[in-house]
Amino acid sequence: PRCFPDADYEAAGAEIVEAGSWTKAPLSAVILGLKELPESDEPLLHRHLFFAHCYKGQSGAKELLTRFKENGLLWDLEFLVDEKGVRAAAFGVESGMAGAAVSLLQFAGALDERCGEEKAIP
To answer: Which residues, listed in sequence order, are joined to residue 73 by a DSSP beta bridge?
Structure first.
């Protein structure tokens, strides 16, 4: 079950779109998700932030990473580690907080157009 219904996101100013419509989003958009992408050979041209399940070489990891080869960018939340090399995000509360933080940075215009470096929030 989800913590917040769509109506709460809409009330906060988010636009709820049809599932899968991200493929038609502007290339400058950050695609945020917490589930796997559909299997396909199509290149991924957007910037994606999600748990890609590539950290441990899971099944399909090589195929997924190959889809980003042309111009896409993947921020795989499983690769976030602390100063001791311990994973900082895992499924659960941490993954939701990481996704929410990046979403807010994107919304505030604080992520760089291409490389995702933080800027001062206006």
So the answer is: 47
The 10s digit of each residue's pLDDT in 50-66 is 888 887 788 888 999 99
Report pLDDT digits (tens) over 31-48: 887 677 888 899 999 999
- Active-site hit among 35, 56, 69, 84: 35
Is 35 designated active site? yes
HSE-up (13 A, CA, CB side) for residue 69: 8
Asked whether the CA dihedral 20, 103, 42, 25 is positive or negative, the reply is positive
Q: 57: which DSSP letter?
A: -
Q: Where are the beta strands (DSSP E) in 4-113?
A: 30-32, 47-50, 73-76
pLDDT for residue 116: 47
CA 88 vs. chain centroid, Å, equals: 16
Q: Assess whether 53 carries a catalytic annotation.
A: yes
